[in-house]
Write a structure and sequence with these properties.
- The complex is a heterodimer of chains A (293) and B (287).
- Chain A has 293 residues and is mostly helical.
- Chain A has a single domain, classed as Formate dehydrogenase/DMSO reductase fold.
- Helix content of chain A is 72%, strand content 0%.
- Chain A contains eleven helices and no strands.
- In chain A, helix 3 runs antiparallel to helix 4.
- The longest helix of chain A is centred in the C-terminal third of the chain and has 30 residues.
- The radius of gyration of chain A is 20 Å and the shape is globular.
- The two termini of chain A are 17 Å apart.
- Chain B is an alpha+beta fold.
- Chain B folds into two domains: 243 residues, Alpha-Beta Plaits, CATH 3.30.70.20; 30 residues.
- Chain B is built from eight helices and ten strands.
- In chain B, strands 8-1-10-9 form a four-stranded mixed beta sheet.
- In chain B, strand 6 and strand 7 form a beta hairpin.
- Classes of the chains: A mainly alpha (293), B alpha+beta (287).
- The interface between A and B is large, with 92 and 78 residues.
Amino acid sequence: MNARSYEGQTYYGRPAVKASPYGWKVALYTFLGGLAGAAQAIGALAGLAARGARPPFDRPARVIAAANGALIGPALLIMDLHTPQRWYNMLRIFRRTSPMSIGSYVLTTFGAFSALALLPKIGRAAQLPAAIAGAGMASYTPALLASTATPLWSAAPRALGAEFATGAFASGAAALMLCSRARSLESIASIATLAYGASALIAEQEFKRKAVDRPLERGQWARAHKAGLGLAVALPLACFALNALAGRSRGRSALGAAGILAGVFLSRWALFEAGNESARSPGDYLRLRSRSA
Amino acid sequence: MSSVLESPPSQPQEAEQTAGTRIEPGKKYGFFTDTTVCIGCKACEVACKEWNALPADHLSLSGMSYDNTRELSANTWRHVMFVEKLDGDGGRPTEMPAFQSNWLMMSDVCKHCANAPCLEACPTGALFKTEFDTVVVQQDICNGCGYCVPSCPFGVVDLNMLDGKAHKCTLCYDRLKGGFEPACAKACPTDSIQFGELEELRTRAAQRVEKLHRLGRTETYLYGVPGGPGGELGGLNAFFLLADKPEVYNLPAAPSRGADRVRPALGSALGAFAALAAAALTVFLCE
C-alpha cells in the first residue's frame, strides 16, 4: 500500500481540508504589520549608521510603526476574531508550535516598544527592541500560513518566508519614501523590491514543482497576483532606473513607492485568496500529501 | 466540563457492559472504525447529533450516492461516506463480489491525533488533550480565531458562525467522564465503530487485518497506526481499517505536521530580513 502513489482519486471532488476563514482583513494586517516592522528597523538602522543623529525620516518611521503595531494591527486582528471580546485569551498561554501564539507576543512586544519609541526620553532606548520585534512582525506571518494544511501555503515554507520578509522590507522603505526625500531610501527600496521579485519567482517555481500552483495560474486571483508583482517590482524598478539615469524626480519616486505599496498588498491578498481556493481543491492536497516529506 | 455523572472508582460503569472496557483517567482511549463491516445506516450520525444536541446542516440531496451529509463540520461530528465502485464505463455491474459488493462505506470522525495539528496551532489553549488522551475544544476559552480550521490535515475542525467558536467531535468527553461509551460507538449496530483503550483496539485491529488477509482480502490495511499509512502524526486515536487507497476516502496518504514547517518558514524570513537590514545599513554607511 505504501508504494502506491496518487492517481487523482477524490471523494466526489469534495474538499479534503477546510479553507481558512482569512480574507482581506488578515491579509491587510500581514501587509501593514510587516511594513511597520521594516519601517521601524530602517529608522533604527539609519540612526545606528549616523551614530545617534536622527535621520530625516526618524519621526515617520516611529509613527508608522506605532500606529500599525499598537492600533491598526491589533484592531484588524480583533475584528477578525469570531468572539472578539475574548481577544485577551491570545495571551493566556504561549505555544511554540503555533505561529499564531508566537505572533501574539511578537505583536504585543512590537506595539508596546513602538509606542514607547514615540516618547521623548526613553524613545531612543525603545527603538532598538522595537526594530528587533519588527523583524518578527515581517517573519511570523509566512510561518503562520506555511504551517497550515492549505496546499498552496504549505508547499514551500522557505520560499514563502523569503517572499513575505522581502515584501515587508520593500513596503517599509516605500512608506518612508512617501514621507522623506532621502536618496538612501530609494536605494534600499530598489534592493528590497528586487529581492522581493526574485523570491516571488522562486516561490512560484516551488509551487509549480509541487503542483499546487493552479490558483495562481488561472482565475481572478491569479491575475491579481501577477498585477501585484508587476506593480511592486517592474514599475518601481523602472521609475528608480529612470531617476538614476535622468536625474531624480519627485513624481517618479512617489510613483515607484506607491507601486510597491499597492503591489505588495495586492499580491499578498491574492496569495490569501488563492490559498483558500487551493484548500477547496482535494486533488492538490491529496497529491501534495501522497508521500511523506 | 466537570460532570455530575462522574462515576466513583468502585462502582461499575456502563462502558464495561457495552464496550467491554472501564474508562479511567490517565489511560488512552479512541475509536477503531472497521469500514469493512459498515453498512451505511448512519446510526452513528444520528446518535451523535442527539447526544450532543447538534442541529442539522443540510436538508437537501447532494447527488453523492447516499451521502447527503457531505462533510464533517461544526454541527456534524460523524459523517458516513459512500463510495460506489462502478465499472470504468459508468454502467451498472451485473455481478457483485461477495466482499464489500462494490460499496465502500466509512464513518468519518475527528482522528484525535497524538500530535494534533489543530491543538499545536491553537493560540489560546482552548484545544487541549484530555485525561483520556482525546482532543477537545474548551468552549469557554475559544475566541474563534479560526486558526485550527486550516491547520487540521483532515478538514475536521470548523467554526460555527452563529456562536463564533470552533467545534468538533469531543469523543463524548462528558460521557467518558460518566463511564459511558461514546454515543456513536454505542449506537453502531455492526460494531464497525469500536470504542476502547487504544492499545487494545490496535491489537484487535491488527488481528482483524490478519484475518482478512488470510481470507484473501490483502488490500485491507490500517490507516492511522504509528509507522503505517496515516501514522505520520504519531498515530491517530481514531484509526480506520480501509479497503482501498486513503484518497478514495478523502484521506491524505501522508498527513503532515504543520509545526514542522514553522522553523523553515520563520528562519528563512528572518534570514531574508537580516540580509536586507545589512544591505540597508551598508547604504546608510556609504552615504
